[in-house]
Each structure stands twice: as C-alpha cells, then as structure tokens.
Amino acid sequence: MTSLAELQRERDEWYAAWRSRPFDDWPLTKVAELDAKIRALTAPKPPSRFGYTIENGIDTLWLKNAHGARMIHGVASTPTINSHNYSLSSAGCSAKLPIPVLSSHEGHSCPIGEVVLFRRSSTQIYVRCIIHDEGPAANYAWRMIESGELRAFSGAAASDGFKLDGIVDHTKFYKTWRLSEVSICRKGANPDCDFEIYDEMRQGALLAASAGSGSSSLGDPVPPNHTRDMVGRLRTA
Question: Is the pTM of this model over 0.85?
Fold first, then answer.
C-alpha cells in the first residue's frame, strides 16, 4: 500500500510537471486523482462501535453505549468438563459481538436479547447481556429471571471453528472454538455457569470506588479483578 508521504511526493511531482507545461491537462488529471487518495487517507475515521482492552492476559470486548433496563451478567463458559462429556478452553474461545441471547438454545431467528460485553481469561468466559425490553417472549423471560427460575447460562459453540486438543477416557478437550450464542436456562450443562441481574447503578458505583474517584461513566466495563471477585461470589451464592 502506498504511504501518505509517497502520495504527497508523487502529487507534488505531477503538479510541478503541470507548472512547466501549463497547456497540458494530463498532469492536472493525475494531481486530482492523487488529491482524492490523500483525502481518503487523511479523512477522520468514524468512531468504532466497539471498545477493547487487554490487561494481565484478560481480553475484554464490548459494544459502546450498550445500556438497557434489563441486563444480566455472569459466567458463560469454563474449561470444566460438562454433562455432554467435553471441555472447552476459555483461552481458546473467540467471539464477535453482538451475540444473540436465547432460551435453552431455541429461537435462533428471534433472540430475546444480546451479549454486549465479552471477557475472556484462561479460566472463564464472562458476559454481560441486555434482555429486550419489549415483546411477550422477552417479558416472560424477564419475569422468570426476576423470580429466580432462570439463573443458569449455557454458552453454545459454533459448528465451525472447533479444534480438538485430545480425547482422554472418552472425554473430548477442545482448544479453540467460537461462541455463537448464550442461552438462559434452568440448569446448564456446565455447573460453573450462572448469572445474576446486572444493576448498572451499583456496578457504576463499584467501578468509581475501585478507581478511587467519586464518579464513573455508567456502563463502563468493570475492572477484570473486580469481575473475578464478583463472579466468585456469584458461584457460591
């Protein structure tokens, strides 16, 4: 790819050629073409929809300004061997936001919410989700969440992207995979995976306190260390 400096130098050369032959329009045509390329390279880029950080080996990807009245968060996957007799490496998980939220892996064409934050460490996949605030299906799901009937997460792997690390005593260990959807359910295949209602006001205050300041932008990602502590309490609650 031609650099900006090279384009500017070529543009100046063509402009000088036109100055020496002002009755020849061809150099001006080249100048106009090069000016267009320079403008494309120097034009301000639109702001990204996504935020990304990596700290102490923990990756966090989130949709910016993704807030809602109905939010949940928790652990969507760990390497623990599940009831289907396989293990998914957390470090080997990939994802592309937004990820659909379903109920018990049903209704792929009409999700009831979406994952808006994905955090990956060597030990777990943590997610934050928005449940849609309208529609009978989403309303029914939210009532079941509030009542405590649905408090388990189940992360589903895409059919492509699997890479097997090995098989031991009929148990499969996958070292790479892609998170295609997250389901809420009564009981998941992995006992580590559960969630709670996300209180944005409370989490914003905790973030401000952890940063040692008196204010915080609500919805900013919780620091990785705090997330691990929160999830630890969630598992034992």
Answer: no
